[in-house]
Amino acid sequence: MSGDEAFPLKSNLMKPYSRNQLTNERRMFNYRISRGRKSVECAFGMLTSKFALLQTPTSLRTDKIDIIAQSMCVLHNFIRMHDGVFSIPKVPNHIQQRHYEADLPRDNKPKNLRTCLCKYFCDFAPIPHQDVYNV
Questions:
Q1: Secondary structure class of 13 (helix, strand, coil)
Q2: 3-class DSSP state of 51
Q3: Which of 4, 63, 79, 127 is the most buried (most CB within 10 A)?
């Protein structure tokens, strides 16, 4: 999950580097994490427009929310496939496929995880224009 600078950095909540700590690599990380967050917000917006349940506070038990959210995603994809507007994202040719689990820090400290993600975005999975992005 990604938050903005107002959120705390946690192992399950990544946030961008603050503006006074930016290097070129950190700027690229901030750009990539921002793109990811925007994609999630857009996807949730599409689900919200389709399922009215998401437009109001819920009184559902928390152990049921995951299965309901997953069911909504499956239904949404089924509807898009039926309507002929479903597409499978393509991985660009310049991104090398590799497993990075071995590169993850063993301690799961948030700062170490963020550093590892920063390195991954910059070194192993760059996008062509990320180095010219200005924050």
A1: strand
A2: coil
A3: 127
CB 32 within 8 A of CB 130: yes
Q: What DSSP character marks residue 75?
A: H
Q: What is the DSSP string of 88-118?
A: PPPPPTTSPP---GGGS-TT--HHHHHHHHH
135 touches 111 (CB < 8 A):
no
Q: 125: which residues sit within 8 A by CB, 6+ positions away?
A: 95, 96
pLDDT at 135: 46
At 44, the amino acid letter reads F
Closest to 3 measured CA to CA, from 46, 36, 47: 36
pTM of the model: 0.66
104's tokens: 């993850």
Spans in the chain with pLDDT lower than 70: 1-4, 86-105, 125-126, 129-135
Tokens 């991985």 -> residue: 91
Q: Report the run of H or E that residue 34 belongs to, with start and end.
A: helix 24-50
CA distances from 54 to 58, 70, 74 (A): 8, 13, 15
d(CA 104, CA 85): 36
Report the alpha-carbon angle 33-39-42, nearest 5. Answer: 140
